[in-house]
Amino acid sequence: MKVGWFVRGDIDGFFGLFVDNLLQLMLIAVLCTKVCGMPAELVYGRILPGAALSILFGNAFYTWQARRMAIRTGRTDITALPYGINTVSLIAFVFLIIAPIYFETKNPRLAWQAGLFACLVSALLECVGAFAGDWLRRHTPRAALLSCLAGIAITFISMGFVFQIFAMPAIALLPALFVIMVYGGQVKLPLGVPGGFVAVLLGVAIGWLLRWCGYPFFEPLQEPYSFALHLPQPAVAEMLAFLANGQGWKYFSVILPMALFNVIGSLQNLESAEAAGDSYDTRSSLLVNGLGSVVAAALGNPFPTTIYIGHPGWKAMGARWGYSLLNGVVITALCLIGGVTLMLRVVPLEAMIGILLWIGMIITAQAFQEVPKRHSAAVALGLMPALAAWALLLIETALRKAGTGLYDVAPKFGADLYIYGIISLSQGFMLSSMILSAMMVFVVERQFLKAAVWTGVAALLSFFGVIHAYTLTPAGVQNNFGVGTARSFAVAYLCSALLLLALHFYNRGRERTGLAA
Fold first, then answer.
1. Which of 55, 103, 112, 141 has the lowest CB atom count within 10 Å?
2. What is the pTM of this model?
3. How far is C-alpha 142 from the geometric centre of its chain's CA atoms?
């Protein structure tokens, strides 16, 4: 079978994935300069070129993987796994590792080295996790893998952008509604023009028109753009320098959860792709996922790359595998010539976010559509830890903007918000989401022994502080690994596991009695 490289739907898919990647790059540029005090030459000359090569590395592999599957199976509807920089890891690495070191030392280069070290260690842990991925995927219910993904989609992706859209309706609302109309109604535009492309053009036109009419809705980046070639440079020496001073390991409590986050998130995305009809090999997908972050750290980018949420959305757009390769090439070219600065001067962020809102909606809907109807309660339960993590982010952001923090304010909440419950549920939320959802699936199926096993895992993870444990410090909420750090949760889960074990024997006894009768 002759298999080409591009179809018309790849243009739509490219704009969606490109917009997502571009938003992350813009976020890196803003946070690294404004929050972490990094000079422009470090951000645009070292970090973004390194990010570009790591994105190209992964996109090239996942393009090859999808095309190879199409040739092997004779199918032409295969969609490559989307790939890029992980938003949650980006935020966590900035505010929990890089920024604290900068605030403490006022040395942006040392803060950058800390990020590189964290990215490398996280990547190596992901590579190790690749060899356990197949086993975990076989023994985890689909609802458990999809529910947390839906939780992230509806909170960190959809709701954040919904707020941004309604905060700037003059520019953002019409493009967002256009995306929903075209993709939701499966409308084919004249000449096959991609809906996402039209939406972005519409937002850009509105933004500049309002600006020319004197309305200050769109404020382009003031930093001038000048063409220059920024080639990636090795950063191994910087990583080793930070490793040598021994500071890096005190941030392991952030690095380990982020590595687990990326492994589990990638498993969930693989399950999402399989639910949409594309079943990819777990080990090779996760291994390349980790190697992409190794490439990132080695070339100066401190932010891990990973398999993206959104495969069903790109597939519904008609994208196949060419969109992934096109994304990698364009992102690389943009970063190597310092084009992110140019994009911040020309394109309003609000013009692009309707596409991401649509992707979040599709992922959330899929979690309920692609599981048995009786498992919908398990999906709903699995959403709750992600909701808590997002609520905590909103609260911390609001307090930080007010010039204070949770360390000072948390005791004042009392029973009004149950802030300590929000913090506890948010810690290790991807793991607790998966565990609670899996437990609920087996309860619904009356497989109480399997439910007891999952609840026992929750007890074990709680006891060692992997989930629910935290320490409240002036720098914010931090993980608290150690023996017995969340013992109240561990005891509660253990008692629940014993109760489920009792239900197992009770139920088995009743079934035997029924059979005997």
1. 103
2. 0.72
3. 19
